[in-house]
Design a protein that fits this description.
The protein is an alpha/beta fold. The protein has two domains: 2-116 and 301-316, Nucleotidyltransferase, domain 5 (2-Layer Sandwich); 123-294, ATPase, nucleotide binding domain (Nucleotidyltransferase, domain 5), CATH 3.30.420. The chain has helices at 33-36, 44-66, 85-102, 111-117, 162-172, 179-187, 212-227, 234-260, 275-288, 297-300, 305-316, and strands at 2-7, 12-19, 23-31, 75-81, 106-110, 130-135, 140-147, 150-156, 264-268, 291-293. The strands form two sheets. The protein has a five-stranded mixed β-sheet, sandwiched between helices. The longest helix has 27 residues, at 234-260. It starts with a strand and ends in an 18-residue tail after the last helix. Bound molecules: 5'-O-[(R)-(carboxyoxy)(hydroxy)phosphoryl]adenosine. Residues 10, 136-138, 163, 166-167, 178-181, 184, 269-271, 273-274, 301-302 line the site of 5'-O-[(R)-(carboxyoxy)(hydroxy)phosphoryl]adenosine.
C-alpha cells in the first residue's frame, strides 16, 4: 500500500510517501523559518498563509521523489490535531479534498501518535509495549504505548512545554528562533554545573512536569546580572538551563518505565533531537538496564513520515474521516 501523508500542524509544511508501515519513499519538509524569524516566534496567521502557498508544491515534490502519481496512492493520512487550527485546516482540508476528488480513503492522525510511533520507521525499533517521552514545542508528556493505536498518558507538563522553555530562554538571551538548536549549540561552550537552576520534581513520584519556574529563574538570573552591570554568562546559562531540563525529563521517563515494568524507552518530538538529552537518556538507560530507542533527528522534529505511519495503523483499525470532519487544537490523548 502507498500512503500519502500530510503534516501542517505548526510552522512546517510536510508531505511524505510511505510504502506500508515500513519504507519511507519520500519525506519533504518546507520550513517557514524565514517567515517567522524576524518576529522571534511563530505568527499563526502567517503560518496558515504560508501553508496555503506551500502545500501543492510540497505534495507534488513528495510524489515525484517517491516516483509515484496520485492513482498509485491507496491512503491519504493527514494531521487532524493538535496544533494551530489555522495551520491544521490547510493540510487537513487539502487531504480531504484530494481524497474526495480522487476517491482515495482519508484518515485523520493525532500528531502526538505520530511522535509516539516515529521510531517504528527506524531499523532499530522497540516491541510493544514501551514507555515514550514526547517532548516538543507544544507538548511534554510521558505515555505507555501498548500498541500502535493504544496510548495511555502517564504524565504531562502542568505549564510550559520543554521546547517552549528552550524557545523563551533563547529569546530572553537574544539568541534567535527557534531556540532549541541555538541554546543547545551555545551550551556546548558553557559549564552545566555553573548555575544551580531549580528542578521541578513536583510531588513525590509525580510523572508531571513544570518548566515555568525554571524559565523565571533564568529571567531573574539575567536581570540580576544586568542590574549589577555584570556580563551575562550566556553559555553557562544555556548549559545549566539545558542540564536542568534534561535531568528532569530523563529521570521521570525512567521512573515511568520502571513503574510500568517496561524495559524499553522511546523519545520523540523536536527536543528529542537535543544532543545532551540523547546522551543522558542513553547513559541512564544503560545504568538501569533499559533499552533506549531514539529516532534520527529528522524523525524527531515535525515530519509527515510519522503521520503516514500512524495513519497506516488508524486505517487498519477501520478509522477514516468524512469530508465534514473537523481539525482539533487539543489532543484527546493528552
Ligand atoms: O516537534 P517539533 O518540531 O514541533 C512541535 O512542537 O510539534 O518541536 C519543535 C520544538 C521547538 O521548541 C524547538 O526549539 C525544539 O523543538 N527543538 C530543540 C532542538 N531542536 C528542536 N530543543 C532542544 N534542542 C534541540 N536540538
Amino acid at each position: 500500500m502507498h500512503i500519502l501523508a500530510i503534516e501542517s500542524s505548526c510552522d512546517d509544511t510536510a508531505a511524505a510517501v510511505l510504502q506500508d508501515n515500513r519504507i519511507i519513499l519520500s519525506n519533504v519538509i518546507s520550513s517557514q523559518f524565514d517567515v517567522h524569524a524576524k518576529y522571534g516566534g511563530i505568527v499563526p496567521e502567517l503560518a496558515s498563509r504560508s501553508h496555503i502557498e506551500a502545500i501543492w508544491p510540497v505534495v507534488n515534490e513528495a510524489l515525484d521523489t517517491a516516483g509515484v502519481t496520485l492513482p498509485d496512492i491507496q491512503l491519504i493520512a493527514a494531521t487532524q490535531g493538535p496544533g494551530l487550527v489555522g495551520s491544521l485546516l490547510v493540510g487537513f482540508t487539502f487531504a480531504k479534498a484530494l481524497s474526495l476528488v480522487n476517491n482515495i480513503p482519508c484518515t485523520g492522525v493525532d500528531h502526538m501518535a505520530g511522535h509516539l510511533l516515529a521510531i517504528g520507521l527506524e531499523k532499530n525499533k522497540p516491541e510493544f509495549p514501551y514507555t515514550a517521552l514526547v517532548v516538543s514545542g507544544g507538548n511534554t508528556s510521558i505515555f505507555t504505548v501498548n500498541s500502535p493505536i493504544d496510548f495511555i498518558l502517564q504524565g504531562r507538563t502542568r505549564d510550559d512545554a520543554a521546547g517552549e522553555a528552550f524557545d523563551k530562554v533563547a529569546k530572553l538571551l537574544g539568541l534567535g528562533y527557534p531556540g532549541g538548536p541555538v541554546v543547545s549549540k551555545t551550551a556546548e561552550k558553557g559549564d552545566p554545573q555553573a548555575i544551580a537552576f531549580p528542578r521541578a520534581w513536583l510531588d513525590k513520584g509525580s510523572l508531571d512536569f513544570s518548566f515555568s519556574g525554571l524559565k523565571t529563574s533564568v529571567v531573574n538570573y539575567a536581570n540580576r546580572c544586568r542590574q549589577n552591570n555584570e556580563t551575562i554568562p550566556v553559555a553557562d546559562i544555556c548549559a545549566s538551563f539545558q542540564q536542568a531540563v534534561v535531568e528532569v525529563l530523563v529521570e521521570k521517563t525512567i521512573l515511568a518505565a520502571q513503574n510500568s515494568g517496561h524495559s524499553q524507552i522511546v523519545a520523540g518530538g523536536g527536543v528529542a533531537a537535543n544532543n545532551a538529552l540523547r546522551k543522558r537518556i542513553k547513559e541512564r538507560c544503560r545504568e538501569e538496564k533499559i533499552k533506549s530507542f531514539l529516532p534520527s533527528p529528522v524523525l524527531c522534529t515535525d515530519n509527515a513520515a510519522m503521520i503516514g505511519l500512524a495513519g497506516y495503523y488508524q486505517f487498519a483499525a477501520g478509522n477514516t474521516v468524512s469530508p465534514d470532519a473537523d481539525a482539533f487544537s487539543r489532543s484527546p490523548l493528552n
